[in-house]
Amino acid sequence: MRAMAALVSAVHNEQEQIRQGGGAKAIEAQHGKNRLTARERIALLLDQDSELFELNMYAAYEMYEEWGGAPAAGVVTGLGRIHGRLFMIVANDATVKAGAFFPMTAKKVIRAQNIALDNHIPTIYLVDSAGVFLPLQEDVFPDTDDFGRVFRNNAVMSAQGIPQITAIMGMCVAGGAYLPVMCDTILMTEGSGLFLAGPALVQAAIGAKYSAEELGGAAMHAQIAGTVDYREPNDEACIERIRSLVEKIGRKRTARFDRIKAERPAYVAEELYGIYEAEAGRPYDMKEIIARVVDGSRFDEYKAEYGKTVICGYARIGGFAVGIVANQALTMQQTDPHSGEMHLEVGRVIYTESAEKAARFIMDCNQNLVPLVFLHDVNGFMVGRDAEWSGIIKAGAKMVNAVSNSVVPKIAVIVGGSFGAGHYAMCGKAYDPRFVFAWPTARYAVMSGAAAANTLVEIKIKQLERTGKKIGDEEKQELYNSVKATYDNQTGPRYGAARLWIDKIIDPLETRLAITIALEAAALNPHVAEFKVGVLQT
Hints:
By secondary structure, the protein is an alpha/beta fold. It has 3 domains: 2-246, 2-enoyl-CoA Hydratase, Chain A, domain 1 (Alpha-Beta Complex); 269-442 and 492-522, 2-enoyl-CoA Hydratase, Chain A, domain 1; 448-491, no CATH class. It is built from 20 helices and 20 strands. Helix 4 (103-119) runs parallel beside helix 5. The protein is globular, with a radius of gyration of 26 Å. The model has no long low-confidence stretch (mean pLDDT 93).
């Protein structure tokens, strides 16, 4: 319990540091311009009794250190309530390099837009950015997940009827100037600037001298160019106007997923700290975790006596009906279908019958319009002669097929390990989960740090032996420790969250809340495609 509490405390401390953005001096400089910081603006924008459900806070964590770092990638994103309605918020943090776009900044904004697109979430942009971070422009500018994709997404979101409101509350220059103009509604504060080229660049390009106000001030855009819809004197008035506009947006139909009044679990969430040990590999019963997340702790387990290393069943979370697919961490007894004898199946491993059960359950959930929640703690699929003879590859392919073609919303929570093909089958990032959450204990990669270190050390030893060199036990241990330390760092949740593989590192106590918010967001999109799986191996 203490180990988990220590991990959670470390995450909270890191997040508090990230919230400081560019630091006290940068915040003071922002206030000196009579402007609020990104987080102050968001706090004013959201309902007083709510707070931002921040996403991708760890973006760019421990990256760009040669440039002084980029806390939260210089942009704050997340879900928040305005007049009780859920919105995606994207706010440039001008305290971090004047809000300039690093490569991960663009990717983080695109991730927020993709979440909004998938779930039809209305979106508000609070723009205060100096544009592309020029020293890294080759990694920001050209590709499909780079800067230009932001504007493409603006256009696609508008075409799909997803409301977008932009407030220009500082600088908005060069290519970044397209973002607000591609949105449905544009506000601008006095003292802000919106132009394709600033005074210095205009003078260098065409030899003409103009002031920033002449080129792209709020008055010019409101009175002459007609670019902006609302000109506001300051941040506070601008945010008040946004709230007033939001109040008048019509409500669209939502998805047909079943929801009733929520009910608290029968067991307290704080017990999760004692159930799950922070030390990797310790056995525990995943059903105990489910009981502390689902409404009333009620769980209709599917095929409870078959394929026991993968748990499947129906429940409610936050009132929403859900199908849960979870890895069992206990070693289980299973009847051999050929001999009729009992044998042991190792926890955290997907066996043939487990994969077949999960594939069928996932298809049932799609048939019945039930969103899916995946709880990861998986080392991979079973290997060996018996597994191959039982058709593990075919069974795994069925599960991957069902996950790939699933049309109901999928939400992934990485509790412990999530390795190799097991990660894929449990709806890893490549399989379009609407959201990916991770506990501080999460680990994911092709294989665990210990397994990878052993493999890489063996390869290295054989390479040296081919050249006639031999290394002693002490050198082997040093090499093993070095490889394992590097690999362990790369499998941790911070590394994945820094690269946007994880949307949010959550306290285990937040699991129920995080899933409920994700389901509420997913329900905003009324469109559910026809479910088809194509050819299944039999």
